[in-house]
Amino acid sequence: MKRNIEDTLNEMQPELLKALKNIGIYQPHPRLPSDWFQWQIAERQMILNYAEIASGTNILEIGCGGQAITTIPLAASVGEKGRVIAVDRGRWHDFWKLIGTSGLKNRVIPLQEDARKLPFPYSCFDLVVCVHGIRSFDNHQAIADAVKEMLRVTKERIFLAESSPIARNLAQKAHITMYNLRSPMFLALGIDYSTAGDIPYLSRRELVKIVKKAGATRVETRLIEVNMPHHLAWFPLSMIEKIRDKKTRGDMKEKWKKAVKMLDKYGEEHPPVIVVNAWKKQS
Ligand SMILES: C[S@@+](CC[C@H](N)C(=O)[O-])C[C@H]1O[C@@H](n2cnc3c(N)ncnc32)[C@H](O)[C@@H]1O
User: Fold this and answer.
1) Max CA separation in the chain (angstroms)
2) Which atom of ligand 1 is nearest to the CA of 146?
3) Does 263 lie in the same domain as 205?
4) Ligand 1 centre from 246 Cα, in Å?
5) Which domain, by its residues, includes 116?
6) SS3 for 156?
7) Residue identifier of the C-alpha nearest atom 8 of ligand 1
8) What is the per-residue pLDDT across 88-137, written as a single tens digit (0 to 9) for each?
9) Predicted confidence (pLDDT) per residue in 137-164, tens digit
10) d(Cα 44, Cα 42) in Å, to the nearest integer?
11) With 66 labelled, which of 23, 137, 184, 231 sits at a CA distance of 20 to 30 A?
């Protein structure tokens, strides 16, 4: 059943709601509705409920991204005595503006590093988290290398969450159809794929295989139906116009137009999300 934003915000933990109120309307692109950021934060909070985060926790967040969408609910969850070390290899955009106005900045330490080679010599984090970041790694090997590092620096457990490639309805299908155009578009443009990201969503089986390959000894997964709108698959036609090869440009244009038609007709909904709790071998 579809949720509405008022009920969703009413269910939110008070500190997170306060942070959202402090931020106010954040609309970096006119295509985004005024409540898109609230929806995204609500989805992250819902997913993080499966991470079982206690107040006072010391968390390493991998792939925080330039809008702190997971960092903000993480910072609200850890309380005044907890900390979130937010790692990204380079996309910071509005991160500090948003963290600053949220009122939670004293709990967040940003760090620019590659998750495949983390600068921590010991297992020093209560929990290592990566939410909707898997899609931005270069390929499956890069995910495995990063997960191996996450397991190395956590004391016991890591938590991963990523959208699944499953569409339960046409609004989810519209999202996946548009999302799946992103990586071929970046490739056709010759943009460095490793920084552009957006590999196809992994199945639950693929994700578990990677996490086990990275060394986890116990892996628990769930598929979560979030029933919330999504807003982030779309990209402008002007990007496709820049593709040099005429045939590829024409093909991509057709696919883009079909995908936009689907978005306009059915709306865009979050596909079910795979959540993973994985444990390292205890020495
Ligand atoms: C989809 S974005 C942001 C996800 C964000 N956690 C959220 O909830 O919206 C994923 C981020 O992962 C980062 N990333 C990709 N590969 C990385 C790597 N090897 N090390 C660190 N960050 C990486 C990208 O720069 C990008 O900002």
Assistant:
1) 57
2) 19
3) no
4) 32
5) 5-165+201-228+271-279
6) strand
7) 70
8) 999 899 999 999 999 999 999 999 999 999 999 999 999 999 999 999 99
9) 989 999 999 999 999 999 999 999 999 9
10) 5
11) 184
